[in-house]
Amino acid sequence: MFLLPAQEASAQQDERKLRIAKIEVYPEYLKEYRAALAAHAKAAVKAEPGVLSLQAVYDKVHPTQVMVFEAYANEEAYQTHLKTPHFLKYKNGTLKMVKSLELVEVAPIAIEIKPELTGNK
């Protein structure tokens, strides 16, 4: 489910910043929040070379529970990301929608993806 291109994963394994954001959204904002998160993730991955992956999912049983797997090239890329206009728009625009946020720093065990899905063959 949470994937990075294999070439990037092996080349940057020591420096990558990986985390999972666990977010609980107020039910009345769910549709609006999902749209804002999707737009933000698309903009960040497209515009920022240091943002390797932002993959957001929600729990089918508890749809207000959202998880985002975040992968950055390194800490510097993450810090740069936090200052971008698209991140600030997302963060400030969704503050009232988020009931809780937990950021979990993680380390890779195995992150695999089929090359045809990344464009790397």
Automatic annotation (TrEMBL):
Pfam hit, one: ABM
GO MF, one example: monooxygenase activity
Keywords associated with the record: Monooxygenase, Oxidoreductase
SUPFAM superfamilies: Dimeric alpha+beta barrel (SSF54909)
Highest taxon above the source species: Bacteria
InterPro entries: ABM_dom (IPR007138), AI-2_Isomerase_LsrG (IPR050744), Dimeric_a/b-barrel (IPR011008)
Gene3D superfamilies given in the database record: 3.30.70.100
Residues annotated as domain ABM: 17-107
Database matches in PANTHER family: ABM DOMAIN-CONTAINING PROTEIN (PTHR33336:SF3), QUINOL MONOOXYGENASE YGIN-RELATED (PTHR33336)
Protein name per UniProt: Antibiotic biosynthesis monooxygenase
UniProt source species: Flavobacterium zepuense
